[in-house]
Amino acid sequence: MTRSGILGRFRTGKLVAIVLATIWLVIVIAPLYYMILASFRTQGTYLTANPWIPSGGLSASSYGTVFGAGLGRYLLNSVILTVVCIAATVTISLAAAYRIVERRSRAVSASFMVMLFGLAIPIQAIIVPIYVLIYKMHLYDTLFALILTLSAAAIPVSVLIMVSFVRDIPRELISAMLVDGGNEWTVFRQLIWPLSRPVLATLAIYDGLNVWNNFLLPLVLTQSNNVAVLPLGLTKLEGLYSVNVPAVMAGVLLSALPLVVLFVIMRRQVMNSLGGVIAR
Amino acid sequence: MLLFCLFIVVPMIAAIVLSFVKWNGLGTPTWAAGSNWAEFFRDPVARTSVEVTAKVVVLSYIVQTPISMALGMFTAGKQRYKSVYATIFVLPLLMSTAGIALMWESLLDPTFGALTALSKSWNLSFLNQNWLGSPNLTLYVVIAIIAWQFIPFHTLLYAVGRRQIPEVLYEAARLDGASPAQMFWRVTLPQLRYTIVTSGILMIVGALTYFDIIYIMTDGGPGYTTRVLSLDMYDVAFLQDQYGYASVLAVILSVFGIAIAVGLARFTGFASMASQQEGAA
């Protein structure tokens, strides 16, 4: 085959790739575009205007409607839940990983194996006992119930990721610090903690997304409006406004907004961590 | 650690115990021996759910893997426009499942939805369907929406995997006169082995336990055509108050999940990864 033939094939290949990727791009963007446009309609113009063309009267009144319907409260609940869960899982998994790597006792490795096993258990499979447990602890319909269960559910993956990271911290550094008169706590605070900060950020993003978007646990463990988190709150909005599609779309958009803002601020970090967490 | 044991390990054991018990959640549980399990094999709804779940799992895997792999390879490149593509591809990941479900629900509305509008203005009658209310179609619509939601994540995985392949391998292949197709089959694919397994396990276990979108959009309907096992279990537990029987479904669900994950790991020689993990303990 001639040289230009090979180059020609490379070019066609590239072109095909770009065309296919652009088709997917449209598949991703089109529904989002539709949603944004629909959220700026009123109930009346939603029914009459062409949903793809931004003409025929746009208004932001739906955004007012959803805040009136308690979206602010759902948003606050979601933020509290996510922040507390991230803090809890990050601290627990870092401490647990340090323990697992440092102390190679039988009990520790046994509990690590149990944790690996926990990775394979889907939350759906244990939702009934979780519900009973929470009910018996008189925590049903509280944010605290969600904090406990969602943190627990995030721990297996987080510990696994932290273990594979802490394991790579040179043993010599730790023993040097201990020889210099440091105790375990100073090692943890002055060596492990600063070194693991980038991984912790990764972990925070990954766990945070999972907590923010979780639907099943809030659905089963809460019922009243003042503890509803965003995903559940959105379905409540839909129940309330089943004929007011613009309001529901505005709610969906607002609920994604905090994540979009965070994403814009730290795009690199997010993209690297989402892929990196599992690919490690 | 205590938290994990209390909310993950204890429920795991409790689910198994509960599957041998009759309990409506209020009274005292009574021992039922194997009767819940016998019911599973007699229950036609459960059989349908198993079939629907199997379809969701198999089709999700078949649809998502090639698309994610192709997009992953594409976005792994360093060109500027590719990072723009990559950024946009990630967007669905930022939406909650509930949000995605509500968005598609209104988009597919047979009267006012956006596809219906398209079919009218372009005269494309095949776009005018009762997407979420047709026994022959709805399951595939749901599978497509699940793909829309999860392909971005698997694309990221494949992009990361592709970037980790040493460029030297490609240079060597090029010197040997390999064509792009040969490079893909002989270099890229074998090097991506772990990514393929990881992504496959996540895809399959995820599809197996898929709940949110189906619960919100179709609630298993029309009829039982989209009633997956996890929805059946939710229904039996929290609407019919049969906690014992629901636990049977839960145990079956996790056994399937573990069996498929372990099987896939064995089959594709993932064992070397497992021994790495053992080294950690």
Describe this structure in words.
- The complex is a heterodimer of chains A (280) and B (281).
- Chain A is mainly alpha-helical.
- Helix content of chain A is 79%, strand content 0%.
- In chain A, helix 4 packs parallel to helix 7 and helix 8 crosses helix 9.
- The model of chain A has no long low-confidence stretch (mean pLDDT 79).
- Chain B is mostly helical.
- Chain B has one domain: MetI-like (MetI-like fold, Orthogonal Bundle).
- In chain B, helix 1 packs across helix 13.
- The radius of gyration of chain B is 23 Å and the shape is globular.
- The chains are: A mainly alpha (280), B mainly alpha (281).
- At the A-B interface, helix 1, helix 4, helix 5, helix 6 and helix 7 of A face helix 1, helix 3, helix 4, helix 5 and helix 6 of B.
Portion of residues within helices of chain A: over 70%
Under CATH, the topology of chain B can be stated as: MetI-like fold
Number of helices of chain B: 14
General shape of chain B:
globular
How would the blueprint of this fold be written?
The complex is a heterodimer of chains A (280) and B (281).
Chain A: H1 3-39, H2 43-48, H3 61-68, H4 71-102, H5 106-120, H6 127-136, H7 143-166, H8 171-179, H9 184-213, H10 216-221, H11 230-240, H12 245-265, H13 267-279
Helix pairs in contact in A: 1-12, 3-12, 4-7, 4-9, 4-11, 5-7, 7-9, 8-9, 9-13, 11-12
Chain B: H1 2-18, E1 21-22, E2 30-31, H2 35-42, H3 44-75, H4 80-90, H5 97-107, H6 114-122, H7 138-163, H8 167-175, H9 180-191, H10 193-208, H11 212-217, H12 229-239, H13 243-267, H14 271-280
Antiparallel strand pairs in B: 1-2
Helix pairs in contact in B: 1-13, 2-13, 3-7, 3-10, 3-12, 7-10, 10-13, 12-13
Summarize the structure.
The complex is a heterodimer of chains A (280) and B (281). Chain A is built from 13 helices and no strands.
